[in-house]
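Forwarding the complex inputs:
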Amino acid sequence: MYRSPPGARGFFIAIGLLGGALLAATLAGLLAFWALQAAFPRPLEEGYPGYLILLFAVVVLIPLLVWLGRRVPFLTDWYYLLPAITFLLAFTVFPIILTTYYAFTDYSGLRNGKPDRSTETEIVRVEGQRLFLAGNAHDLLRCDQPDCAGQALEITSRTQRARVSAAQAQDNIITLTAPPPFTPSLVYKINDYRLVGFRNFMEIFSRAGTVLLPILVWNIVFAAGAVFVGAIPGLILGLLLNNKNLALRGFYRTALIISWAIPVVISVQIFTAMLNVQFGPINRLLGLLGAYPIPWLTDPEWFKVSALLISLWLGFPYWMTATLGALSTIPDDVYEAARIDGASGWQTLTGITLPLLRQPFIPLLLGSFAYNFNNFGLIYLMGPQPGVEGRPSTAQAADILITWAYKTAFQADGGQAYGLGGAISILIFFLTVAISLINFRFTGALREVR
Amino acid sequence: MHIIWRYAGWALFGLAVAWLLLIYFPSLLARIQPNIPPGFVRIENGWVYALAGLLVIIGFILIYTWLVTYLSNHRSGRKRSFWPLFGQGLTHLFLLLVLLFAYYPILQILAASFDPRNTLYRILPPASDNLLVRARVIPDFSQLSWENYAKLFDGFVLYPYQGILLLMAGLCLLFALGLAAYRRLVGDGDVDSPWARLQGRSLALFALLGFALVVFLSPSQFTGQGTEAKFMLWVRNTLFVSGITGILAVLLTATAGYAFARFNFPGRYPMLLVFIFIQMFPGFLGLVATYVLISNLGLLNTFTGLVLAYSGGIISFGTWVYKGFLESISKSLEEAALIDGASKWQAFTLVLLPLSTPMFVFIFLLQFVGTYSEFIVANLFLTGVDSWTVGMGLRNFTTGQFSTRWGLFAAASVLGSLPILLTFYGFQRYFVSGYTAGSVKE
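Prediction (whole assembly, two chains):
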């Protein structure tokens, strides 16, 4: 097949062949790894590193691809996509699928599918499916069920480990559902997570009035507000600096993009120090102007104002640069014509410049909205937030959806409820897709590539 | 119908503004407690003085521009209005105020980094006659000290060959900067002139030497007590990880961008959609899954593992940008090569790659800068003070167990933002053109 079959058939043949090759190589890598482990066993603590699987897989994949490329020449077009696709599959698609799966489980810090090392119990003797322990099986392993029925366990020997399931336990004897594949010396309980259906989503929506809705509303307000407070000053500065007669124009332009050039992780933390109620330089400056200390970071509403203030500082250089870039594409003769027609400066601005800026600005505005909608770094780095009554500690005054999800999934006070965090992530995903669809509809980005 | 919508939009906007001004702002102001903490300088009706001062300055500008215009008119006998000049004066005043706003945090953090008392939060005001200093609006420069910086370099041993590398890298950078200044002076705007090429080469040599230095630095060279003495090691780690991530981004996206821009295979459009939409899943919430994967590969607490974890998030955008760039290049060059019997791969590597350098620089820089700021993923994958990154170290200073160490944080911020600041200003052209390439279409 020198030419690709047209339409969906060609697409599916290519995807099938590539996917098959990747799958075969991965399986070969795994098999080679297991063969290595079986042939030259090593103690568990210093076992073979897992990346050997990748090396074996690559060793198999490359000849396989060369061979496939000879047999099906049209496939070589797809080889250009292969590096990107492989990495996307491994480090984006796979985590997404797994997270979606976790969203339907009760996966959390306590139930993470890992063996609980504190339940380590010695196995005295093995008889078929029965393991004889050093003491009472149920007490030592802390099973969920009184007779340990269905309990997931990990058994290890010096060089091997395996996951097994208990059928029942009596005194110091555990009966497994199948005989162990090797003679184990230790057994652990596995803190298994379970499928819970839509319970995580129910939890989110059952408290929608106090948590989800306020956060969503603030999230939208924050994203729109951050765009607004960045774009308007940036636009004004861009218009001012576009004046070719202005002295020191290049200097201002270069000097003013400073806040764009400082890593966000640094600048946001500087701002949290600056916004301290009693000692922050901003309040000291305002004090000279007659203001009482403003509770920037200790009052829930002022915290939101602070978030927008920081967005202003971070955002205006981008908009200034964008304005200058867009203005440079407007030909001078347009202004020349307006001048000859006797238009005043204000008329030129509202009649020519601003309407001509609309076209390039719409995609930038929408893109900036989408970016700020998930602006994790800013909100998270602002540090601990003032509490709001009736909301969990993971969803405080200025938390947006993504910080709520992160705190739920990873912070100790959220119980590291990864399942719940995954459910929120799926919600964020759908919202982001919706925003982007609107974006594409306005800008026609998708029509263009077609 | 359209008109109605338009008016409805404006009405809604007006309502929102009215709510903001009449209800929200008063409620915000009501939340301010009217009490003055010790050491806080407050001037009753200070804003009146400030406004009056501003008006006086504007008056000066008015008089000055009027005088200048009057004198020049008098001399040349022309009749020119002084309003444009006055407008320029006001513009300068406004821009200076904006500069003040933009640089106020930087000024404060610079001052804090030289403050040996290690805190932004001092109760006692400095004894000074200057009101602005006493209110600590202008930092007290009478007690500068390098103590915070010294702590960051405490016990750092530089081997002689590394010193030589550092010296050579510095010389290369200076040479490149000197060339850039010379070219600007001469007005050499040609990107292909011999001087420009020499400048590019010395920058590349600087990058190479810097990379060698980053690779050869080892944790054993940092013998100081306390976590802060490892700061340069964190910078080195961050530069290493960011650099590799940036290179990986270019490598992974170049061929994919080429395929999307030039080939017309069935399934091109759905694949492009997949590339875009996959990116909308909040990346780091897949972290537990990525963690499971990296831990099964035995790469936890290695930079390789961290770079692999980053690699998922960098592909779509780079591919998309590079594809857009290639589509703006005419096909005729490659077609000539293809007719001459070159393969697609040869057309790509020999014809297109040399043309694509600016875009690769942009993609690399974007990843480099983005990764430099990252600390969430790094926090999960790297353990142990020796493998921290700058972001993690800085978080440690501000969320420390005992107290927030602002002095150290400030000094570390200043040093830690330097690489990105230099990169950004050095490659400003690439950033601006790259960012606006996608947006400013006719």
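The first helix of chain B runs from residue 2 to 30.
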